[in-house]
Every structure is written in structure tokens, then in C-alpha cells.
Amino acid sequence: MKRALRPAAELPSDIRLMNALTMVFGLAFVALAMTLAAAWLARQSLFSLSAISVQGDVTHNNAVSLRANVAPRLAGNFFTVDLARTRAVFESVPWVRKAVVQRKFPDRLQVILQEHRAIAYWGPEGDTKLVNSFGEVFEANQGDVELEDLPQLNGPQGQAALVLQAWQTLSPLFEKLDTVLEALELTTQGSWRARLDSGAALELGRGSPADIEARAERFVSTVTQVSSRFGRQLESADLRYGNGYAIRLKGVTTFNPADKDDKKVKR
Questions:
Q1: Cα–Cα distance between 22 and 230 in angstroms, integer?
Q2: I want to staple 203 with a disulfide (CB 3.0 to 4.6 A). Which of 86, 154, 230, 238 is the partner?
Q3: Percent of the chain clearing pLDDT 90 (strictly above)
Q4: Is residue 108 within 8 Å of residue 129, measured between CB atoms?
Q5: Helices (H), the chain
Q6: What is the pLDDT of residue 254?
């Protein structure tokens, strides 16, 4: 008669331990073999990066120049290249706002770029900073800007988005006067100043974009009536009054010519 096999639970403890160790060592061997095989495979020339495909916005950076500037700064092959570092390298290129990097088996990288869209200059005139459509400040060669009539915005650090919002709010108002809001500044004291393309300087006072919009609407709706009486061009305006504004017209004063200081015309 054949002897019945003993259940595993009835095996002596030393045999159960030996079986468990055998399984552990077997799994470890398989894992090590797979790791070594993967490492060997990754070192094969088949997986060396041979091409970088650049898509998306390439208005200011063509694909050839991008590959030439970026490729020498990359390390590794298809498996080992650091995608996060590769993305950072592309995003360090002028005009590039965002880069998405993907592997394409077996030896390629695909990069999709989003470039900055310049809306305004930022900072003192002549500076190299620009503001994009997201209100973000970036640096680039201003000679690469397609539009020549971008406004000049300025303000404290971190306030570019707010200043851009204010300019976008006010700009359509001044178009009613057939003029362009050429510059807008938020001072460190929180006061707003503007300049029109005619050269007229405006003091808009403190407050949110909505606050200065209300003052500007009042000014725009009535200033033509005032200036037309004199037939003179606006030189400056102070909109900080609670119930009106003060203006200065070129060649028009309300004072004795012997006085040194101009008195402002109020409405």
C-alpha cells in the first residue's frame, strides 16, 4: 500500500523552514536576474537617444536650434534619461513657458512646447522683462517681440498679474477718447499712475482695479467736454478727488502769468 502524503502543517518545522528559505532565495535570484538583464538591456546602443521630436509653439525657437542647445545638456538613454530634468532644460530656453516631455520607444523623446505670449513690457523702460498672457514675468530679447506697441507696465514684485488686470480693464475706456493707455504703474505705496500715448500723465489714486476703473469712467465721460472748450490737448489729470478730477491743458492756465505755479482746472 502507498503511504499517504502528510499535510504541510504536519511537516517538521525544520523542513518547513527549509522550504520557505528555498522559495525566498528562488524569488531573490529571479529578481536579481531580471535586474541584471534590464541593466544590460538598457546599456545597449539600441536605446541610446537618437532623436528629439519638438512640437507645439516654436515661433521664437525653431526645432533645429532647440535640439542643438538642449541635447548636449541631457544625459542617459531611453530608460535612464531624467524627464523632469529634461523638462527643466527646455523651460530654461528663452520664450519657453512650459514643456511636456515623453519617451517614444525605443530611442526617441517627444517634446511639446508652449511659448510665452508677450502682452506687455515689465519694469523700467529698457528692461528685458516682459509679461505674458497669464500675468507672469519672463525675460527675453525684446528684439524678438513681434508687436511694437506693447504697453509698459510696472509694479512691486509679484504684482504683475494685478497690474495686467488693471491695464486690461482700463484700456478699453481710453479707446473711447481715441487714445491708447501706453503705460500703467502700481507704486510701492499702492498708488496707480498712467500715461497715454499723447504723453498725458494721469494720477489714478489708490485702490483695486475696480476702484480706479470707476474714476477712469467718470473722467472719460466728461473730459472731452472740458478740453473742447479750450481747444487744447490734455497735459495731465489728477483723478484722486472724491467727486471730480483736476486737469491741466497745454497752454491753458487759470492763474496770473506772473505766478510761477500752474493752478489746475477742476471739474
A1: 103
A2: 238
A3: 52
A4: no
A5: 13-42, 63-70, 83-91, 160-175, 209-230
A6: 52
